[in-house]
Each structure stands twice: as C-alpha cells, then as structure tokens.
Amino acid sequence: MTFIAENIGIILAMMGTGVFAGILAGLLGVGGGIVIVPVLFFLFQALGISANTAMVVATATSLATIVPTSVSSILAHNKKGNVDFALLKYWAPFILLGVLIGSYLVTQVEGKWLTLLFGVIATLSAINMLVGKKSAISETLPSKGGQGIMATCIGFFSSMVGIGGGTLTVPTLTFCNYPAHRAVGTAAAVGLIISLPAALTMLLLGQRPSDAPYATFGLVNLLGFVCIVPLTVLFAPIGASIANRLNATMLKKVFAVVLIITGLRMLAQSLI
Asked: Fewer CB within 10 Å of terminal CB in the chain, N or C?
C-alpha cells in the first residue's frame, strides 16, 4: 500500500495512457506506439526527468507494450485470412536486421535525436492520414532486392522511435497496390517481429539512465508496461465499437491534426 500511495500519480497516468492508446487503436486503427511514445515522453518530463532520458525510456517501454498487443492482433487478423505469411517469410530477416541495428543505436545515441526522428515520422504519418485514400505509386511490390530494402528500413525506423508495424508498413504496402485489409493484418505480424527483439535488446543491453523513472530496467519501464498493456487490450475493442457509431474518418482527421501538433512540438524541443 505504501508503494501505491507514493506512486499513485504516475500509476494513474500510466493507466490513463493505456486507456487512451487502446481506445484510439480500436477507434482509428492506429498503432499504440504512435500514442504511447509522445504521452510517456511528456509525462516523464512532467515528473522531472530529462528530455533525453524521457525519450529513450518512452521508446523502449512502448516497444515492450507492443509485444502482447500485437500477438492478440495477429490472431484476430489471421482468423480472417488477412496475414500474408509468404511475404513475412521473406521480409522477416530484413526486418530483424533493421530492428537489431535500430534498437542497438537507441542504447547509444542521445534522446534528442530519437525525439527529432519521432517528430518527423509522426508528422508525416499525420499528413498521410489527412490526405486520405491515394492512388498507388506502383502497380506491384518491387523486386526482391527492393522489398529487402523496404523491410530493413521499416524495422530500423520503427525500432528507433518505438512504434509497431502499422505506421510504416501499411502505407508502404498500399502505395504498392497491395490490398488494404491484407496490409493491416500483415502489419500486425510485422509489429511482433519489430517489438520483441527491439524490446529485449533495450532491456538487456540498454544502460539505465541515472534519472530514469522508478522500475526501469535497462531502458524499459516495467511499471509502465504493467499499467499500460492490460488496459490497451481491454479498451481496443471498446474503441472499435465506438467507431461503428461515429464518423471514424472525421475522427481520424482530428487525431491527425493533434498528431501533427505533437510531432511539431517534439521537433521543436529536439532542435532547441
């Protein structure tokens, strides 16, 4: 009881992050990482933690939370036949290569560079949401070599900023005239390939910052993991249910505007 009383503020904030991420994931179809990273980034700073530490711990913790949520997502999409295992079989080694490079760099670089990169990716992702449906750039996926480069980049950049497979994988596949429902289902599996090795690398190889929040091991905040994951899983179906009764397209555009503001704020903070 003493522990809970002393840490009630951060516990409630973490739980709120889980609720918020879960509802948005179900409501808008966005990955939890694109929500969890900026929320934890600003939350940790509000607790007096430096911006550099806040960003690396937020990134690592976000990736850890994606592991269990991506498993449940894969199972749901696989029941509908929307996971392209043939594509995953070829992409997996390249994704893993990108993840190992990216997650190792997270343990070595200053948090301001991760903040800058997240700000860029968040802003571009938000613009992609605002633009809406677009014509494919290519009629088919590129050659095997081109796909290898794509998969490596997805693994690298996703692990660097703490996001799962959806934010980069879905637009990449749909730009190549890949069926949207298959892109979403396959991206869920990509999220697991990204998050599991990345989170383990940051947990085992990351050196705990001196001003890290309580219960941080390596770079992963286990208190955040425990508070966020159950609520994200619980509230994602509620978000999906709400989406059936509201104008999800308009809500997605509103979220995109908020995400642009968040991305630009993180960009500004990293450049000051």
From this structure: N
Find tokens 């397209």 and name the residue: 249
In angstroms, the first-to-last Cα distance of the chain is 41
Cα–Cα distance for residue pair 187/74, rounded to 1 Å: 9
Amino acid at 164: G
CB 238 within 8 A of CB 23: yes
Q: Positive or negative CA dihedral for 73, 168, 265, 242?
A: negative
Nearest-angstrom CA–CA distance, 156 and 187: 15
From first to last of its 272 residues, what are the pLDDT tens digits of the chain?
566 666 787 788 889 888 888 887 767 656 678 888 888 998 888 888 999 999 999 999 999 998 888 887 788 778 878 889 999 999 999 999 999 999 999 888 888 888 889 888 888 888 877 876 666 677 788 888 999 999 999 999 999 988 877 788 888 888 888 887 788 888 888 988 999 999 999 999 889 999 998 889 999 999 999 999 999 888 877 877 776 677 766 777 777 787 888 888 888 877 76
Single out the residue of 236, 177, 203, 254 nearest to residue 36, CA to CA.
236
Half-sphere exposure of 160 (CA within 13 A, CB side): 27
265 Cβ neighbours under 8 A, 6+ residues apart: 119
Tokens linked to 12: 């409630």
Listed in sequence order, the residues at least 6 apart from 162 whose beta carbon sits closer than 8 Å to its beta carbon are: 33, 36, 37, 58, 59, 60, 61, 62, 63, 118
